[in-house]
Design brief:
This protein has about 120 residues and is of the alpha+beta class. The protein has two helices and eight strands, in the order H-E-E-E-E-E-E-E-E-H.
Length: about 120
Amino acid sequence: MPLSSLASALVSSIVTAILDAPAEAPAPPQSVSVPAGMRTFPAGVQGGTLQAAPAMGQVVINGKTFPAAPGLQVRNEANRIVLPSMLMGSNFPVLYQMDAGGINVWRIWILSPSEIAALQSR
């Protein structure tokens, strides 16, 4: 019967670990918001200028080339998802977010003039 006592010890250990776990949930990340009627951006976003539409798996922001995450999402001023190939022109004011590893650009938000003004006044 050593197996049942081992199983009993494992179950007891798991139950004790669950009961001793902290009861409070971690605090949600703070977001960056602009005045009413404008978008709310997640914590950890960075500002910059997107030099041109992302192409060939790369994004150029503030003159620095970053790899684009496989699921790169670009949102226009109306908060609609757009394909990078739909962006015409260059030098888009943006907020961008890196992936969990901090290597790839994962999300890009093209800013409207009113969002730029609101963020600059903060």
